[in-house]
Amino acid sequence: MPAEFGIVYPLWNEVLAPRDLLERVAGEVGLDHITVPVITGPWHEFRLVTPLEPERSFATEGGWHFPPVSERYRPTGVIPRTARWTGKRNHLARLCERAGALSLRLVFRVDLRGAACASEQHAHLRMRDAWDDELPWACVAQAELRELLYAVLADLACYEPAGIELADWALDTSTGQAHETSLSWHAGARRLANTCFCPACRQVAAHAGLDADHIARSVRVHTERMLTHPEDDWRGMLAADELLKAYRHGVRPRECADWLTQLSASHPQERQYLLRPVTANGDCTPAGWYPLLDTPAGTTHEELERGILNRTERWEETPTVWGLSLPVWRPTFTDSAALVRMVTQTAAAARLFDLDGVSTALPEAITWLKQAVRFARRG
């Protein structure tokens, strides 16, 4: 099946972007879809192209970027927060009309973890580490967050999306827009220290016969040793801890994957993706879902190539259909040739491309994108 090509088109482009940007890109590039971030955490971007000079910067506290139907959320006990920039207008409905006129399918991107933790009313959903300290991201094992996602999908159904992308719906991870600085100098210790021990995770462990308190003590000991004795073989140390492996890579990921499979069955879509950083460890691909590899901000072209190569090598024995979300401009790509090469090389395996950054880059980005899509389709 040939890959589909689309651009990431935030709803605030309806206010900030040139009025003809979507039509121009769709006409010149030949798009199949547009991916719309409909729920996000806090967001800030600097825009090189905007008709509202000198208003170059856009920021939002995040939330629902469309008017939610409050009745759908009453059973969850959570009141969805609409992003203030939207005012009282339904920009999503307007964009649906424009997309329909251009014969473009709509894919909705949902970062519920980032949006939930932007509000104090959701503070109880946050992850807790092995020291029982609160982390600034919601945990996907929380039943209330899952019920909230059910309500979101039901709310979005009236817009008839062709696909859904769940951003960072994974255990023990931060959200994409968060700038994590703690332990940034030791990636292994950072990942281990982010292991969640919230009540929901502890309950999953208890049902499997695992002692979460004992495992939390192990995390504290391992983390401190990794930081104080970085020369030691910490990878071997973690590999020898069977209980920790069962907790981090066994019972909880399996429970999460089973729940995602149930969600897919109850809200079937033609395209359902789990958006994860291209450098993330492990692949969670429950039935009904496809992995969508994301390129973190600031990733170089070389780093991206290594990440893609590592993923595709692991999938050689068990072929996996996947998607790729990547920027179309700097700093990842410094010229059009690099973008063309990356898209062409991966188009044979990728099911979907989300090409990001067109609305914040210089007009030359559209030319780069047009060349990349043209060469990929020829290949």
Overview of this structure, please?
Helices cover 39% and strands 18% of the residues. The chain is α/β, with parallel strands linked by helices and 379 residues long. The protein has a single domain (4-180, 253-378), classed as Glycosidases (TIM Barrel). An eight-stranded parallel β-barrel has the order 1-2-6-9-10-11-12-13. A two-stranded antiparallel sheet has the order 3-4. α2 (21-30) runs parallel beside α13 (364-378), α6 (187-193) packs antiparallel against α8 (212-228) and α12 (336-346) packs parallel to α13.
Notable traits:
single chain, 379 residues, alpha/beta, TIM Barrel, eight-stranded parallel beta barrel, two-stranded antiparallel sheet, 13 strands
Number of strands: 13
The structure class reads alpha/beta
- Fraction of residues in helix: 25-40%
Number of domains: 1
CATH A-level architecture: Alpha-Beta Barrel
Largest beta sheet, briefly? 8 strands, parallel, barrel
Summarize the structure.
By secondary structure, this protein is an alpha/beta fold.
Write the layout of secondary structure elements.
Blueprint lengths: L3 E5 L4 H4 L4 H10 L2 E8 L2 E4 L10 E4 L2 E2 L26 H11 L3 E6 L1 H5 L9 E3 L5 E5 L4 H14 L6 E5 L19 H7 L5 H9 L4 H17 L5 H6 L2 H25 L4 E7 L12 E5 L6 H14 L7 E6 L8 H11 L3 E7 L7 H15 L1
Parallel strand pairs: 1-2, 1-13, 2-6, 6-9, 9-10, 10-11, 11-12, 12-13
Antiparallel strand pairs: 2-5, 3-4, 7-8
Helix pairs in contact: 2-13, 6-8, 12-13
